[in-house]
Amino acid sequence: MNGIGSGARIRVIGGGLAGPEAALTAARLGVAVDLYEMRPVRQTPAHQTAEFGELVCSNSLKSESPGTAPWVLKQEMRRAGSALLRSADATAVPAGHALAVDRVEFSRHIAEAIAAEPLITVHREEVTTLDPEDGITVVASGPLCSDALSGEVARLTGKDHLAFYDSISPIVDAETIDMDRVYMKARWDKGSADYINCPMNREEYDRFLDALLAAEPAETKEWEKLPYFESCLPIEELARRGRDTLRFGPMKPVGLRDPRTDTNPWAVVQLRKENVRADSYNLVGFQNHLKYADQGRVLRLIPGLENAKFLRWGQIHRNTYIHSPSVLTENLNLRAYPNVFFAGQISGVEGYTESIATGLLAGIYAAAAAKGQMAEPAPRGTALGSLVHYITHAEAKTFQPANITFDLLLPLDEAVRKQVRDKKVRHQMQCDLALEQFDGWWQRLGAPAESERAMAEGVPA
Description:
By secondary structure, the protein is an alpha/beta fold. The chain has two domains: 9-167 and 319-457, 3-Layer(bba) Sandwich (FAD/NAD(P)-binding domain); 170-313, Beta Barrel (Elongation Factor Tu (Ef-tu), domain 3), CATH 2.40.30. The protein contains 14 helices and 16 strands. It has helices at 18-28, 69-79, 83-90, 103-115, 147-157, 202-214, 235-240, 292-299, 324-327, 352-370, 383-393, 414-419, 423-445, 452-457; strands at residues 9-13, 32-36, 60-63, 92-93, 98-101, 120-123, 136-139, 162-168, 171-173, 183-184, 196-200, 267-273, 280-283, 310-312, 315-322, 340-342. The strands form four sheets. A six-stranded antiparallel sheet has the order 10-11-12-13-9-14. Helix 1 packs parallel to helix 10. The longest helix has 23 residues, at 423-445. The radius of gyration is 23 Å and the shape is globular.
């Protein structure tokens, strides 16, 4: 992995998180990089500055608690010498068990790292074309990819493999659900009874529907004025199409006979676990574009949710990402156009750390390609490999961007799971196995000297 390749050069598009990580990684591997960022020439609706690595939402890169999925992902990234993880560690602020950063200092630290790297040339201009024959390109433009570049991505991937909306269903605190009014059941009793079902009779359904139709929509920003996709319709739009539309959609009662009364409800709202701890549930298929106050008023008409505390309200917003299972390889490049790599949220991952992680991998893979080589992809057993395995092998029909979770990591053998009852111990065992596989892979690649100590100690280089 070391050594400057003769004439080796790549283009990286995007100055958020994945782009700078890919650029700094490739430069560390001896490959010259042209890093493109359209801000401030052209701003996005979400960003406030033109700085590299601007965090537009939270300032947290998730848990630093040993034995958690976000922790093991970051540990692998640190062992690989991740530039942005180094910046995060250098600008960290107290945040309990999470890694949170001073967002201004974080951006400044990244900018200084880029400025100090002689192999990176920064271009402040919008990229509007993608020519897969014109060298190696890493597309890390984020979920607010410009219209022109989105069009180019759609041209290369096929328009059916590009999503323009991310639907977010409301999330409710599990402790605030009235369990006396609901029942646990899977549709047609297929699988375990993991869903909470909130049954409605006809009167309750009509009252809910009338309130939904009378609710006020959220204000629409100019950048969100795009037609809804049929697979991502807000519940209020479904309701406007007919009084029974919801009953044949997200509130379908078929196969959900109430075992307490042995009757079929008129309609059912299903709640699905948001995490393995089951301390929160999302309302399945209840994405909407209503004002938060109206959401609270309407959703608390659902039986069992009368006194619910909502941890997140429903939303529908633009979020451009490719349908990775259909188009990407495990090296994060397009199957049809191997010179084009993807990283960050446009590749189908969610979250700051996950975006940086794919930027790290894309930088490694693109740098190898620029030298006429093919890097071994991160093994399935690592957290890095598990994340990529999900976005490239997920069920095509139900693919949605994902964060790193234990659900994505390789499970332990059944015999081990039966023998080790403590979940925390099992999770730590998964983490240990992931780090072991990472170390072997990283040594096979030829670990760059500056990250050897990080690899050995599991600390920032």
